[in-house]
Amino acid sequence: MNEPSELMPKEPSEVVRPRRKGIYVLPNAITLAALFSAFYGIVMAMNGRFEAACIAIFVAAILDSLDGRVARMTNSQSAFGEQMDSLSDMVAFGAAPALIVYIWGLKGMGKLGWIPAFVYLAGAALRLARFNVNIGVVDKRFFQGLPSPAAAAMVVGLVWVMDDAGFRQVAQTPWLSWLAFGVTLYAGLSMVTNAPFYSFKVVGGRRTVPFVVLVGIVLAIALIALDTPRALFVIFCAYGISGYGVYAWRKFKGKPVSVIATSIDEPEEKGLHP
């Protein structure tokens, strides 16, 4: 009598069922918290509470910086989490800041006020899409264009500073509406430029830094505690200009100004350079 063939189908009880896929709770919960914070900011702006709206966007930025790190620390990265993070970023740092600044300072300009708000919104979408497709070939030391959280911090930072200074009826202050117009347009266009903005990804961890860096961090914390709205606005404005300074410096020194595969620090990037 012949032995049973290994190619014969197994009994139903012996069939190995595919493992059901799940969703990692912790990093996605942080992402959802950032999304809620952005939603809360929009609602507060609609109700005229612009200080709370601006704080909500900064809270969303802090949460956004945590979800990826938590996922890596807990080894819970997933394609679902990446897509969720991108969609949350589009709301938190694209739609929410555009709506907040429009309600606060651009609505009184009529259809003209649509321009910077939409340019900012479109810039955030384009910047996030480009980031997702270029993530494997961009020098890790730099961002290609102004990061959307920093752009959002510039826009809502202006709103927070002026609201804290007592400017309530912005529609009756033309120069303030034009200032909001310029800052929003600048932030939106800066997100889609090729200027290299330092990413700070190589700072920390096992990397050493000069002692003066720690002193600078202490001073920055003290300034933020002393006058939070103005300190944050100045810091992010300086960062929003820094990319063009790096671009000009590289151009002056004859170095490559593109951040696409300009570093050979990582092994996977070798061979990408002429």
Description of the structure:
By secondary structure, this protein is an all-alpha fold. It has one domain: CDP-alcohol phosphotransferase transmembrane (TM) domain (Four Helix Bundle (Hemerythrin (Met), subunit A)). The protein contains eight helices and two strands, in the order H-H-H-H-E-H-H-E-H-H. The chain has a two-stranded antiparallel sheet with strand order 1-2. Helix 2 (50-73) packs antiparallel against helix 3. The relative contact order is 0.11.
What does this entry show, briefly?
With 274 residues, the protein is mainly α.
Please outline the helices and strands.
Elements: H1 25-46, H2 50-73, H3 79-106, H4 114-134, E1 142-144, H5 148-164, H6 174-190, E2 196-198, H7 211-226, H8 228-253
Antiparallel strand pairs: 1-2
